[in-house]
Amino acid sequence: MDTTYYDQGTTAERWERARLFFDARDYAVAARILSGLVDEVPEQVGPRLLLARAYYHSAQLRRAEAELRALVELDPVEHYARLMLGRTLQRQGRHDEAESHLRIASALAGDFEQV
């Protein structure tokens, strides 16, 4: 596959292609497609969240963290982004930093026993 493959098609077609690769667990290819989409529509939560998940599943934790922090900045009440950010920080051994994000995610999800 050459690099133009990742940019071909409409935004909707590339979104669908990225989701197919993600569902097939080819996270690196999904991330290549999604990074272009995020550049194109940075205000959209969906592509950025899926990009962060693709980075997370392909162990690109610093990249996942960067995308998740951008998401939290864009939408502070996006509980799944908070949860993923907490999990990403945990995987990096940054447990103290992860705790606050996990608590916020629990509160936003209505799971007050975890708060």
Question: How are the secondary structure elements laid out?
Answer:
Blueprint lengths: L3 H4 L3 H13 L3 H14 L4 H13 L3 H14 L4 H13 L3 H15 L6
Short recap of the structure:
The protein has 115 residues and is mainly α. Helix content is 75%, strand content 0%.
Give an account of the 3D structure.
This protein has one domain: Alpha Horseshoe (Serine Threonine Protein Phosphatase 5, Tetratricopeptide repeat). The protein starts with a helix and ends in a 6-residue tail after the last helix. The chain is mostly helical and 115 residues long. It has seven helices and no strands. Helices cover 75% and strands 0% of the residues. Helix 2 runs antiparallel to helix 3 (27-40), helix 3 (27-40) packs antiparallel against helix 4 and helix 5 runs antiparallel to helix 6 (79-91).
